[in-house]
Amino acid sequence: MKERIYELILERRYFRISDITEELWKEYGEIFPRYFIRDKVKSFVEVMVGQGLLNVLTDYDPPIFENPIAEEDRPLEELLRKCPVCGKDFFPKRGKQDKYCSRECYYKAKYRRTQKELKKRARKYYRSNDAAATNHGKPWTEEEDRLLIENKGKLTYRQIAQKLGRTVDAVAYRARKLGITGGVK
Known about the structure:
Strand content: 5-15%
Strand order of the largest sheet: 1-3-2
Radius of gyration: 31 Å
Helix content: 40-55%
Shape: rod-shaped
CATH topology of the domain at 2-79: Arc Repressor Mutant, subunit A
CATH architecture of the domain at 2-79: Orthogonal Bundle
Structural class: mainly alpha
Order of helices and strands: HEHHEEHEEHHHH
Number of helices: 8
Number of strands: 5
């Protein structure tokens, strides 16, 4: 197995331990468990780094190694990607479809997208009444204030805004100004 590990390392200019482990797993997966293969690769790479045959390029986990005598001669910048969430450089495992360095970053980005979409939907919902606002920019009358006070807790801001011909934001602001925010939905 050591010869095969050495062959795989010679083929690559830049690599991670997991890259070599995956290749060997495809070949020896029926014979050896994955952790055994990973430990063998890790110990072999540690020996090569100790002898000065390999260089460690990154200080974060998982480390990226450089083989100066490799057959492949592509620059590192072509192989690395920058994670849009954490900013780390990483080797894509599955080619161009890898956008994030880890599952954690993927889930953080997914959470941010979901939050953005929820805010967008809420904004669209509340702003949908704005086009029908006929009293937009006009001063509030005592009758409108009275209607707002009477319907506190009975109607939503959106329903009150439709009745008054105001925007939802204007109704919410006026309710706060009148001190009746607790009872209005």
